[in-house]
Amino acid sequence: MARILSGNRKQFIIEEAGQLFREKGYTAASMRDLAERVGVEAASLYNHIKSKDELLREICFRVAHEYVSHLSQTEQMEATYAEKVRALLRMHIAIITHDISAVSVANNEWKHLPEPYLSEFTHIRRDYERRFAALIQKGIEAGEFRPVNPKIALFTLLAAVRWVEIWYKPGREISPQTLERDIETILIHGLTQATAP
Amino acid sequence: MARILSGNRKQFIIEEAGQLFREKGYTAASMRDLAERVGVEAASLYNHIKSKDELLREICFRVAHEYVSHLSQTEQMEATYAEKVRALLRMHIAIITHDISAVSVANNEWKHLPEPYLSEFTHIRRDYERRFAALIQKGIEAGEFRPVNPKIALFTLLAAVRWVEIWYKPGREISPQTLERDIETILIHGLTQATAP
DNA sequence: GTCTATAGGCGGATAGAC
DNA sequence: GTCTATCCGCCTATAGAC
After folding, report:
1. Which of chain A's termini has less CB crowding within 10 Å, N or C?
2. Confidence check: pLDDT of A58 > 80
3. How many domains is chain A partitioned into structurally?
4. Under a CB-based contact definition with an 8 Å cutoff, are residues A45 and A35 in contact?
5. Mean pLDDT estimate for chain A
């Protein structure tokens, strides 16, 4: 029971840390700032966590594992490569809009992870990119996609959904559904009306 | 003469600061770090600059003004909206590949600007986005572009070229020319071969 | 214009009472 | 588990000798 309460308390602290790190950046955010949000003195935080960077680790790796888990599911789908890429774009937008603080921290503050976690994190991310690029490569070979460099295509897609993380706030004028539809339209079909392959 | 030398020295310090801020982040980068790169003691830097945030300001506003200046030129071009948007995409890629540290800092560290510079910077950026979105809006009205939300289109385009800033290193396997061509292909024509408007 | 020395503040984290 | 008090280090920036 004590462990469950303690676990909840820790999760609450991690949640607040995610929002704080997103707003001010990991380095500029102090444990005193975090304590104020949580409603305790700074020293009390250390009854739940061991260090500031433990918070960063929890956030970054939770996000990383969520992305990898969805990628694995997508790879096993029975579908065309275009459908798989489309599903991954939707997945990215969904994760971002549902867990925006954590995603933002994982995207922008990961470089402050201390070793060996930094190496582990970049390794996971590189592996994710490699597997995603392989799907695009196969889509090109299958004639579904234009013959572009798969890495360029990958990063263009990933970056194009990442802006949502910077910009999106719940309750903003544009709904997640419109977001999803229009971003997909541009990336999959292109911006211009009349296309000539 | 003394002023010219001093000016060059200051520019050198700003250049080194840009690289340092990009690598470590503005808050995590110390004046001692910067001094070591420049080859002096930290206190000596203050003969050339007034404060750490002056360096951040110089970098952020130089980049902002470069973007705005190119946008103004593009607005005055005699060309279709598709050609103008294409020109702006090329301009973004060119600025990023030529001045990557400064662009990276302006994109990622601007939030550490102290007021009133923070407000001024965000105002300049919002104005840039408004004018760029207007070009897309007109392109949609002219039937050149698909009927998507202009803001979504804008941010998707801007984000898609921004990844270059995170990823690009001079001398990497992919050339700026290939970058430009493939990113344009995806954003303007779309990833899939057979498009059905 | 560069140096050494240092002021003055805030950072993460710990000790120990309750 | 939370508090107060505090350690100790690093931070930006300044003072003043050379």
Report:
1. N
2. yes
3. 2
4. yes
5. 92
CATH number for the domain harbouring residue B179: 1.10.357.10
The model's pTM is 0.94
Does the CB of A182 fall within 7 Å of any strand D atom?
no
Best interface-test mutation with A: which of B138, B186, B187, B188 has the largest number of A CBs within 10 A?
B186
The H-assigned helical ranges of B41-149 are: 42-45, 52-75, 81-98, 100-108, 117-141
A146/B111 CB distance under 8 A: no
Instruction: Identify whether the C-beta of residue A197 lies closer than 8 Å to the C-beta of residue A144.
Output: no
In a domain, B196, yes or no: no
Non-local CB neighbours of B99 within 8 Å, separated by 6+ positions: B63, B66
* Strand D contacted by B20 CB (< 7 A): no
Return the pLDDT at A102: 98
What is the C-alpha separation between B104 and B96, in angstroms, rounded?
8
Are A189 and B195 in contact (CB < 8 Å)? Answer: yes
Please check whether residues A32 and A103 belong to one and the same domain. no
Tens digits of residue pLDDT in B149-175 = 999 999 999 998 888 888 887 778 888
Residue A194 lies in a domain: no
* Same-domain pairing of B4 and B56: no
| Strand D nucleotides where any atom sits below 7 Å of a protein CB | 1-5, 10-16
User: What domain range includes position B131?
Assistant: 52-189
Query: pLDDT digit string (tens) for B19-67?
Result: 999 999 999 999 999 999 999 999 999 999 999 999 999 999 999 999 9
Residue B195 lies in a domain: no
Shortest Cα distance, chain A CAs vs residue B102, angstroms = 17
The alpha-carbon gap from B157 to the nearest alpha carbon of chain A, in Å, equals 7
